[in-house]
Amino acid sequence: MTDDNANEQAKAPSTSEDSQAMKQANNPLHGVKLQEIVEKLESNYGWEGLAYRINIKCFKSDPSVKSSLKFLRRTPWAREKVERLYVKTFHKKYRPESY
To answer: Can you give the pTM of this predicted structure?
Structure first.
């Protein structure tokens, strides 16, 4: 085995790394922090609008970014709903034409 072949093999990423990179490249939430998501949705809809769209107490009763983040980090089903609303709202590729 020559040094050139060894270098080529060392540089080539494995196929699992390639597929993971492709999944992340297609993920609209990749690199977006939950805090950014909540702040952007709140500035777009306001707390009342968020509570109307997603029926969770942290948006209805004395809402704040801090309390919402605490709740969403501990509650996967609520976080999914918030992430889904974010994608529908801010990523045109994922919005139906009727929006």
So the answer is: 0.69
What amino acid occupies position 96?
Answer: P
User: Is it true that domain 32-94 has CATH number 3.40.50.300?
Assistant: no
Supply the DSSP string of 10-66, one letter for each residue: HHSPPHHHHHHHHHHHT-TTTT--HHHHHHHHHHHHHHHHHHHHS--HHHHSS--HH
Give per-residue pLDDT as tens, 6-36: 555 555 555 556 655 555 667 778 888 999 9
Where in the chain are the domains? 32-94
Residues 1-38 as b or e (16 or more Cβ within 10 Å = b): eeeeeeeeeeeeeeeeeeeeeeeeeeeeeeeeebeebb
